[in-house]
Automatic annotation (TrEMBL):
Pfam families: Acyltransferase. SMART domains: PlsC. Residues 185-298 form the Phospholipid/glycerol acyltransferase domain. This is Phospholipid/glycerol acyltransferase domain-containing protein. GO terms for molecular function: acyltransferase activity. The gene is LOC100791297. Keywords: Acyltransferase, Membrane, Transferase, Transmembrane, Transmembrane helix. The chain crosses the membrane at residues 117-137, 209-231. The keyword RNA-binding does not apply. InterPro entries: Plipid/glycerol_acylTrfase. SUPFAM superfamilies: Glycerol-3-phosphate (1)-acyltransferase. Signal peptide: none annotated. The keyword Transmembrane helix applies.
Amino acid sequence: MEVTPLSSPSPIHGLHLRHKEARFLAVASTLYLRTHRGTTTYKHPILRTSHNAPQCSLRAISKKHENVAWLSVSPKLHVQNKFPRDVVVRSELTAAGSAGDGYFLPELKVESKVRGVCFYVVTAFCAIFLFMMMLVGHPSVLLFDRYRRKFHHFIAKVWATLTVAPFYKIKFEGLENLPPPDTPAVYVSNHQSFLDIYTLLTLGRSFKFISKTGIFLFPIIGWAMFLLGIIPLKRMDSRSQLDCLKRCMDLIKKGASVFFFPEGTRSKDGRLGTFKKGAFSVAAKTNAPVVPITLIGTGQIMPAGKEGIVNIGSVKVVIHKPIVGKDPDMLCKEARKTIASVLTQS
């Protein structure tokens, strides 16, 4: 997206506006927002700054996407001539594909909704039969493989593969970087979509995801998660978070692997968020390697907040070399840098 003040012939892009920079924009009486795809030109009246709100801000996003506000200013603030304190004017002209840039979502079409319905029909159909197999084999799993549960994860791999195969293709890179199956490790990746779980399950590795407790209440899927040994977590509950980390460390010590989404939530625009340090504290305290994984494309097929649609597309999974260390901060920075490096190139 190109953001151009009326009084300036050159585009402004990738600027972080604070105080004096914001006053520069206030010179223009009208702000033109236009995209390279030729969509409608939008206008916004003069921006003002005041002593009460010295840091005005603006996020320019295509109005084409109905699920994202094209101007992130609330009506109440608009009437009062006040703006949020700290926002970025973003543009397609910034460093292409950098970790700070998002992606453009395809237009919402009827076919995408139909594909979404078909996706969940296939999911449910496959889950019912495979869940019965998990139930039958569960006693043996508890007796001989209580922590890794390889049989259950094999069933989960078959289920995920059958579910996604009709809808999108997955390309794997760096499979040689995966630790041996019996080596406990901490896996981390960026998080863009509900499809991330399906995609990662097709790897066939016996790692334990961390999931919100509410998901366990879903029929069939939630029950299967329980059998797989998925770790429940109550968000905003410090005790639950502490118990979760302790359980992860216990699993690693007993030979199992765990999987974290360090951002803590799905990215709505593809930008890589800040990493939380829980996963890396677990790795540092247990001397387990951290295996960074970059997911590309899942957020465009099924955007966050739009779980009812499935767009046409493909997914790329890049497995990076393991990182070893005893400093959680170093592990966190290196893992994020590694994942971001691939997002920059995509």
